[in-house]
Amino acid sequence: MSSITESPFQVPRDDSKLLQTTKTSAIEYKKQISFLFRCAATSALGSLMLGYDQGIISGALVPIENHFKLSEFQAEMMTSSITFTSIIGSFIAGSIADALGRKAALMIASMIFFAGSLGMGLAMSYFTLITWRCISGIGVGMGLVICPMYCAELSPKSMRGSLTSFNEMFINVGIPLAYLANLLLSGTSPDDWRYMLISGCLPALGLLLATCVLPESPRWLIKHGKPEQAEAIIKKFIHPSESEDVVRRVCKEVMSDMRRDMETRVLRDSIEEYTRPRWTLAAFVAPASDEVASWLDVFRRNRKVAFTGMTFAVFQQAIGTDAILLYSVRTLTVYGVSNETALLTTLVMGICKLTFTIFTSTLVDNPSIGRRKPLLVGGSGVFCGCCIIAISGAFPSSTGSGLIAGFLVFMSSFGFSYGPLCWLILAELFKGQNRSKALSLGSVLNRLTSFMVTSVYLSCLRWFTLTGTFVGFAVIALAALIFSAVSVPELAGRRLGSAAHSSVMSRNLSCISAQSWGMARAPST
Questions:
Q1: Mind listing the pLDDT tens digit for each residue in 213-243?
Q2: Using an 8 Å Cβ cutoff, are 446 and 426 in contact?
């Protein structure tokens, strides 16, 4: 009889000293939490770029429509174009991060977004504007993949939930910052939308400068045969007060765990393996080696894990998240809310989303709460928010106030659940060999779904009315909630990538399905 268990860790915190006591096997040591949080926050600036763009375009859309005399279709294409090209960024991010490192990939993403933001602000025609917006999307897509990957690979498992949640947290930091910039810049000049778009250069420049002092992912260094550099970074996790013997033992233990995750072995042909072409059809479908996984290995090695992760990534956007973020000001003004009130509402909406994301990040590493409870509670709230918006459309006299209430409930619930947990769960589902490509594919599907929703949102409002559109979103939100309850396993406290083992995933899903229907079923042994 066999069983797979995780060592129970007692994790007392001392926030005043920024230390954490953790037990790794028989080794007890203090962690330098300030270093870990600084690394996670720096890398998460890449996610801030997405949030900032979503917030900025929400306020800039109406003046851009007036300036270029855009049709409804042109407005949809201009708004959603960045989402479409972010698919390209997401698709190439995994290979770039594997080849050049997580740090270099973040720097490339920041430079692309900087150039795109500057070009959008200086655009003199609709074609030029949409071209630069497409370029920005590549940087956004890369950042959306690399940030959670870096945080998950750097984090100890006792802190992985909170640190990986920085990805969604910084998206939500970017949204209210952009809404605030919209409020401050609106009406300052006839071309106020240009200043709004150019302001996107600031987070990109901040990421570029901050990444210069960011350490490389130690797991990537181990994978590429640089254990000495990886060990030097791991030592920074450990407080200087620890003895040399403890430092040595902890480094050995952590590096052993990282090697198991990345499945790295020292082979004589490793250099040849790492330098082989990656952009050919053969590389896409080639059988897996010990060092490099092909794209199809994401599905070949464990279909249940792949299906769960990819479907979850699709649901995160199919519920209408980006449609509300990108078109919130326009939707509110169309249904009777003043422009000033609409801008203020979006600012409050962004703050609520950020607040609940931070709250979730403090809960998910608690063994008694984990990932699933916030996911199911927040998913229920998302469904309720869609219902409130749909019902408000049936009462024209109170549609504006109903929209505001529904938007706030929706975004608060999303910030508590699907927002921070989507990328954390994806990063935890897959082993290191498949993680970068799995996150890339998940982000591609996520961005593709977002593009499909945002490119027809305004047309859906005209064809099906507000009520019909959000009844559709409510049905999808209910399906996402049921899927999460039945298919998403609890991964809190597990070794990174442990769910990639078929037996573990099968037992998790069978137990979850039984518990969801109130049946007591013991896991098979």
A1: 888 888 888 888 888 888 888 888 776 776 6
A2: no
